[in-house]
Design goal:
The complex is a heterodimer of chains A (83) and B (947). Chain A is mostly helical. Chain A has one domain (7-82). Chain A contains 4 helices and no strands. Chain A has helices at residues 7-23, 28-42, 45-55, 64-82. In chain A, helix 1 packs across helix 4, helix 2 (28-42) crosses helix 4 and helix 3 crosses helix 4. Chain B has 947 residues and is an alpha/beta fold. Helices cover 29% and strands 16% of the residues of chain B. Chain B has 29 helices and 37 strands. In chain B, helix 10 (375-384) runs parallel beside helix 19, helix 13 (460-473) packs across helix 17 (516-528) and helix 16 packs across helix 17. Chain B starts with 18 loop residues before the first strand and ends in a 5-residue tail after the last strand. The mean pLDDT of chain B is 95. The chains are: A mainly alpha (83), B alpha/beta (947).
Chain lengths: 83, 947
């Protein structure tokens, strides 16, 4: 379980891991890409933000694929914000 | 409409294409081959007396009233059992026929009370009509001999009575129970003069028998022998209005038969294309909640939820609500506000709530109760086929050769469709049931499943993948269909995946607990059809892999070519009356009406142009995420129309914590429901009898809902939403739901051809209704999938995290029962409570014995999230290791036990799998007692003006 203290944080860890597990059969690269797409399409901004905030924590609880997907989205969000 | 009985043509319509022409009483009549002479006469406006005939039943030929003369034939054949033939010359009136009919009627009347003036069926009695029609003026036999007068009526059923002295033993009730309902509860007991209608065994009355109170017998009865108690009490109706039932997703249409503003009875409308003249105990009889004493008729507000409610005017309630919403928005931003639409409300009401949230509140935080039932259907079918809806109409089942029912219990949850399904099964279609519980369909009179795969809860994907393994490895896939209609490369990837030996029935048997040989046979049966149809319910969707299961079902249908024609398809059986419609109307936080993503700029621009506002391009929060965000402090206000999330949503403690954390909870409902205990504003709602609009049923059929009485609170639900919008400064001026429907059609491609006027004309329309399909689309994906090529999705079995163990060794699965509906808000306030006064826990005899439990004992049901107590029923319907209960009663609150685990794609809760322990108990738990006290406190209404 995640080290997040917020209800949203705990939920997004479980949700991201569930999504990634269900794409795992496609192989790591595809699983990360599809997990990121799914989160982008269905998560409210504060949920994404909660996920991004947890990425830096060693005890975030994200699976490697879920963490990679969120990291990819966080990068895209940074790029988008920078212009 | 004024009151006129529904026309009855005496025998069912023939479906033959060939026509025959005959002459009836000098008139040439052309009808479909196979049509009875009786029907031919009635179709051309003539009439032939009858008593045992009805066009909802097969011809019986027992009453001998419908005799006719046919030139060239001897005797006087019964017109109901005589097919019309080319060149036939029929005479329906002659001196001989009149004499014969009078003789028959004389015998009937000689054993019938002559109390017409005081009979509840006076002026609505076929026996009375026939006596008049045949010119009966005298009964020669008197009443001195043996007769049935004075026999005691059976009043046991809460909704209808059986008066044997009024019965003419025409068998219409028995045949209706057999042919229409398929329960076979009634019979004719005895012979000759002693013949009597009997419900079940001789010791039974109607209530204790197997009768399911569908009312088909009452509707079929030609006299007052079987009669609604409401008619006996209120008198005959004087007008009838066609409307649509507000219970399950079958969407039965009814004639609401009225005296003034008083509803006398609901009678299924024979022209209704969803129900074809049939109904269930809920739709036909359980409407008394509309006038229940618990109805809230005046708006109420309070500053804090620990205060009593204060009844106020609409103006004060709306100003209070709008002021609070504006203050929260100003302080914390638009994303702190949200709303929940209701699958019990109309399309128009649902559309307005999501419009209010998006355009008024300024967020996309709108969700709907489909979140907790069929959201995986939306995701799964859109991904695979391109449209978030079932593929068939209900009529399609009449063409099915193999019916696969997975995770659904149609006889309880969709009883009217179940009757149609059972009729097809009695005709010889084969049945496969995939369900951990032995539902009634597995074995009932004249219906028996060829295969019942009693899988371990939570292993749907494993079972379906194993079926796919059999189909692919045994060469049963329909390669021609796949090559033409689907993406061939994706199919090959999927086929390789399912063909792997780790997906074989043998490998997966330890996981699924389904014997491999049985699974092989079931897969072969489904694949060979030739017409195989899948029907599924919440036993598919309410799992951590709900969406995967929907896609696995779609994969099976595509792989075997069972898409795009009658008799096949993928058919989600929707729980509530307007689940389909609520989803269609843009109730999900990520999409606008017609399932178009909120991030799509062109779609957003269309709505922005029409509504004159800017829309947030980011998805909003789903219900469980709203609750999380409320606990975290970023979500502060929620407008809930017609939904009781405290009782219906999982992990009650979490829901309560979320609601309690909000600054403003607005509940719009008929009653002070469980959620209202945490509300600051209560806006009284209107029943389906009190409003206009449309519902969309499980077959995408849009049907009118028509107001038959004024709203108890003075406003229909759409008017309340509009008043709230205007109190917030929006400028809405809809004067009728037809104008909202016009806006929906303007903004939603699949509804482009829908209008109020067209619905009035056609009765119903199945979307998409557009330029390509101006009359609607009974069957989808006929020539190609909506998304282009059908998309095979690899669905790997991922076990749920909810595991049994030493502390919680059993698996709980939840469901519904025939007499109750959803959280029971309506049905608990009707006489239906007689059949199900409390939720009970089904437990296998072995598990019960291990715990020292006997039938009726109190037991403590505990999971890692909470515990409750309820009584047990010991039954082998459930497998060892599995227990089952319903969630209709707040006193039990089964969702105290369910967890926050949910479908990976949609967050639909995993209601169907909870690890639990079951132990003896002395009675209600401390939590239940606290909850009862809390609820009583929360429902106080101040009778003095607040200081």
């Amino acid at each position: 379980m995640s080290g997040s203290a917020t209800a949203t944080g705990q939920s997004v860890v479980r949700m991201a891991n569930d999504i990634a597990r269900n794409f795992a059969a496609l192989g790591e690269e595809q699983a990360i890409r599809q997990t990121a797409e799914h989160i982008a399409l269905f998560w409210d901004p504060r949920m994404k933000a909660a996920g991004f905030a947890l990425l830096a924590r060693a005890d975030s609880g994200f699976s490697p694929e879920a963490g990679a997907a969120l990291a990819q989205l966080a990068g895209e969000a940074r790029d988008s914000a920078q212009g | 409409m004024s009151y006129e009985p529904q026309p009855d043509f005496g025998t069912p319509a023939s479906r033959a294409d060939e026509q025959v022409t005959l002459t009836i009483d000098g008139r040439a009549v052309t009808v479909a081959q196979g049509t009875s002479v009786m029907r031919a006469a009635r179709e051309c406006g003539g009439d032939i007396p009858s008593l045992c005939a009805s066009d909802s039943l097969e011809a019986f030929g027992s009453c001998r009233l419908c005799l006719v003369e046919i030139e060239g034939r001897k005797g006087t054949p019964a017109s109901c059992t005589t097919p019309a033939e080319q060149g036939m010359v029929v005479h329906t009136q002659s001196e001989r026929l009149a004499r014969l009919r009078r003789g028959v009627m004389e015998l009937y009347i000689s054993d019938h009370p002559l109390d017409c003036l005081t009979c509840s069926a006076n002026n609505d009695c076929e026996l009375q009509d026939m006596a008049a029609a045949v010119g009966l003026r005298d009964v020669r036999f008197g009443y001195d001999g043996a007769n049935h007068l004075g026999t005691k009526p059976d009043l046991s059923n809460p909704y209808f009575l059986f008066a044997p002295d009024k019965c003419i033993v025409c068998s219409r009730c028995v045949r209706a129970c057999d042919e229409v309902q398929g329960t076979l509860a009634l019979t004719v007991d005895g012979r000759g003069f002693a013949s009597a209608i009997s419900a079940g065994q001789s010791a039974d009355d109607f209530l204790s028998s197997e009768c399911v109170s569908c009312g088909a017998c009452v509707q079929a009865c030609p006299t007052s022998a079987l009669m609604e108690k409401s008619v006996k009490e209120l008198g005959l109706p004087e007008r009838a209005v066609i409307t649509t039932c507000a219970y399950c997703g079958v969407g039965c249409t009814f004639r609401a038969e009225m005296r003034g503003e008083q509803l006398v009875r609901m009678v299924p409308w024979k022209q209704g294309k969803a129900n074809r003249g049939h109904s269930c105990v809920k739709g036909r009889f359980a409407w008394g909640y509309a006038n229940h004493k618990d109805r809230v008729r005046q708006p109420m507000i309070r500053e804090r939820v620990d205060e009593p409610w204060r009844e106020v005017s609409w103006d004060e309630a709306l100003a209070f609500t709008a002021g609070r919403l504006a203050a929260i928005k100003a302080a914390q931003g638009a994303r702190a506000l949200g709303g929940i639409t209701s699958s019990r409300c109309t399309n128009e009401e649902t559309f307005l709530v999501q419009k209010l949230v998006r355009a008024g509140f300024g967020s996309n935080n709108v969700d709907t109760c489909a979140r907790v039932c069929h959201s995986p259907t939306g995701y799964g079918l859109k991904t695979t086929f391109g449209t978030s809806a079932g593929t068939q109409d209900f009529d399609s089942v009449e063409h099915a050769d193999v019916i696969l029912v997975i995770g659904a219990n149609p006889t309880d949850a969709h009883p009217v469709f179940a009757s149609r399904m059972k009729r097809r099964l009695r005709q010889g279609a084969k049945l496969i049931v995939i369900d951990p519980r032995r539902i009634d369909l597995v074995k009932s009179p004249h219906v028996e499943a060829a295969h019942h795969l009693a899988l371990q809860p939570g292993t749907n994907v494993a079972v379906l993948t194993a079926m796919a393994h059999v189909i692919v490895t045994e060469g049963l896939a329909d390669e021609a269909f796949i090559r033409e209609r689907c993406d061939w490369d994706e199919y090959q990837d999927w086929a390789r995946f399912v063909a792997d030996t780790r997906h074989s029935p043998e490998t997966l048997e330890p996981v699924t607990r389904v014997p491999a040989a049985e699974l092989h046979d079931a897969a072969r049966l489904y694949a060979r059809g030739p017409n195989s149809a899948i029907y599924y319910g919440l036993g598919v969707t309410e799992h951590s892999q709900g969406s995967s299961t929907v896609m696995a079902i779609a994969n099976l249908a595509m792989a075997t070519g069972n898409i795009g024609r009658p008799g096949v398809g993928v058919n989600p059986l929707r729980g509530q009356n307007n689940v389909q419609g609520a989803c269609d109307m843009g109730s999900f936080p990520h999409e606008l009406s017609g399932y178009r993503h909120i991030s799509d700029g062109a779609t957003r621009a269309l709505f922005e142009g029409d509504w004159g506002v800017s829309l947030d391009p980011e998805p909003g929060l789903r219900i469980p995420n709203m609750l999380d965000a409320a606990i975290d402090g970023s979500f502060r206000a929620l407008y809930i129309q017609g939904e009781d999330i405290l009782q219906s949503d999982p992990n009650t403690h979490h829901v309560a914590a979320g609601l309690a954390a909000m600054e403003l909870v607005i509940v719009q409902d008929l009653f002070l429901n469980e959620t209202a205990s945490y509300a600051h504003v209560f806006l009284p709602g209107s029943t389906f009898l009190e409003k206009n609009g449309t519902f969309t049923n499980a077959e995408r059929r849009i049907q009118p809902v028509r107001k038959v009485m004024e709203p108890a609170s003075g406003m229909e639900d759409w008017q309340v939403t509009q008043a709230l919008a205007n109190a917030m400064g929006l400028d809405w001026d809809y004067s009728h739901p037809r104008e909202i429907l016009a806006e929906i059609a303007r903004l939603t491609p699949s509804f482009a051809g829908v209008s109020w006027e067209k619905l009035e004309r056609e009765g119903s329309l199945q979307w998409p209704v557009n330029e390509a399909s101006p009359d609607g689309s009974p069957i989808m994906h006929v020539d190609g999938f909506v998304r282009g090529k059908g998309h095979f999705v690899v669905t790997d079995y991922v076990p749920t995290d909810e595991m049994t163990g030493p502390r919680f060794p059993l698996l709980l699965t939840t469901g519904r029962i025939l007499s109750q509906y959803n959280v029971g808000t309506q049905t608990r306030r009707t006489a239906n409570a007689q059949w199900h006064e409390e939720d009970v826990l089904e437990i296998h005899p072995v598990d019960a014995e291990n715990r020292g439990l006997q039938d009726g004992d109190w037991t403590r049901l505990a999971s890692r999230t909470g515990e409750t107590t309820l009584r047990v029923t010991v039954t082998d319907r459930v497998a060892p290791g599995v227990v089952y209960t319903t969630f209709h009663h707040p006193a039990t609150q089964a969702n105290v036990v369910t967890t926050e685990f949910s479908d990976w794609a949609t967050n639909c809760p995993e209601y169907k799998v909870t690890a639990v322990q079951v132990l003896p108990s002395n009675g209600p738990s401390g939590w239940q007692q606290d909850y009862a006290e809390h609820t009583a406190r929360s429902r106080r209404i101040a009778h003095e003006p607040a200081e």
